[in-house]
């Protein structure tokens, strides 16, 4: 999931790929000059239109303390913007001291983000160009997207209903238990039930099944590593589990009449759509709305 962390940093950072010379120089000088300090921080913002609007605000503010605080509050990164609304905002000297320290801290965070971007970008490139497993790179990204989708409300709550069994039918092998962060055991939230939990529950609440009944139940449960030419990745590995689980979830929600909730979440989310879920939705296109 390191790739997910990288993507989140890419979305949240304001200065990725930019030089930090201005911020570092301001941080070394507590005697902040206005509007120069604001203009220089604006130049480092990643979005060009946002940066230009930020600069325009400080151009218009001149040396007016009240207008400067408005620009800091409305246009600069949150860490710096706090100086315009906290106790330091009352006097120019304490305000400037707060600004200098905030800019220094913000520059430090963005240096770390730039480092992660550089190293993580190389990692993403290696994954996306890998040819070890045919269709593997695309499936890895779809798997990550599916993990975001099924662990986010309101979809998460739909899959916690007592009659939902996709997590029980398609479980990751013990050797790959850390494939997803939410099923690693480090957090109880979203943790999938293990085969031991499932067997214990079944034995606690149901009488012993007949051999024929037991065989029928086994046919309904995916057996990890059960190969077959009609199964994704020949039914082997955590990617195969994710594909089958995603298809199962679509079928479950369609049967409950709640597939539209999944579609709405997909349309509103900035995350990509898992390939196999998209394919399943295409077969059910007449039952959903894409507005």
Verbal overview:
This protein folds into 2 domains: 2-128, no CATH class; 136-287, no CATH class. Helix content is 60%, strand content 0%. The chain has 15 helices and no strands. Helix 1 (2-12) crosses helix 7 (92-128). The longest helix is centred in the middle third of the chain and has 37 residues, at 92-128. It is elongated, with a radius of gyration of 26 Å.
Structural class based on helices, strands and sheet pairing: mainly alpha
Task: Quote the beta fraction.
Answer: under 5%
Overall pLDDT: 74
**Count the helices. How many?**
15
| Strand runs, count | 0
Order of helices and strands: HHHHHHHHHHHHHHH
Provide the low-confidence segments as ranges.
1-19, 182-208, 214-229
- Quick one: overall form? elongated
In helices, the fraction of residues equals 55-70%
C-alpha end-to-end distance: 31 Å
Overall structural domain count: 2
Most strands sheet: none
Radius of gyration (Å)? 26 Å
């Amino acid at each position: 999931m390191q790739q997910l962390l990288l993507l989140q940093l890419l979305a949240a950072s304001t200065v990725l790929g930019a030089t930090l010379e201005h911020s570092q120089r301001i941080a070394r000088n507590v005697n902040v000059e206005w509007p120069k300090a604001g203009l220089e921080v604006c130049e480092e913002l990643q979005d060009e239109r946002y940066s230009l609007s930020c600069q325009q605000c400080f151009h218009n503010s001149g040396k007016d303390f009240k207008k400067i605080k408005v620009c800091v509050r409305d246009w600069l990164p949150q860490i710096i913007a706090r100086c315009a609304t906290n106790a330091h905002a009352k006097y120019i000297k304490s305000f400037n001291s707060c600004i200098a320290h905030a800019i220094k801290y913000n520059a430090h965070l963005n240096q770390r983000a730039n480092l992660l971007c550089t190293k993580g970008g190389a990692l993403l490139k290696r994954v996306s160009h890998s040819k070890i497993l045919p269709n593997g790179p695309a499936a890895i990204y779809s798997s990550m997207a599916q993990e975001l989708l099924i662990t986010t409300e309101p979809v998460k709550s739909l899959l916690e209903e007592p009659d939902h069994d996709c997590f029980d039918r398609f479980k990751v092998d013990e050797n790959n238990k850390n494939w997803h962060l939410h099923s690693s055991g480090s957090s109880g939230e979203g943790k999938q039930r293990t085969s031991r939990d499932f067997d214990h529950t079944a034995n606690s609440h149901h009488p012993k099944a007949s051999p024929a009944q037991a065989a029928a139940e086994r046919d309904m449960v995916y057996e990890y590593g059960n190969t077959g030419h009609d199964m994704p990745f020949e039914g082997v590995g955590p990617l195969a589990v994710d594909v089958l689980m995603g298809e199962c979830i679509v079928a479950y929600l369609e049967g409950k009449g709640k597939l539209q909730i999944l579609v709405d979440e997909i349309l509103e989310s900035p995350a990509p759509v898992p390939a196999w879920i998209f394919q399943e939705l295409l077969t059910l296109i007449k039952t959903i709305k894409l507005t």
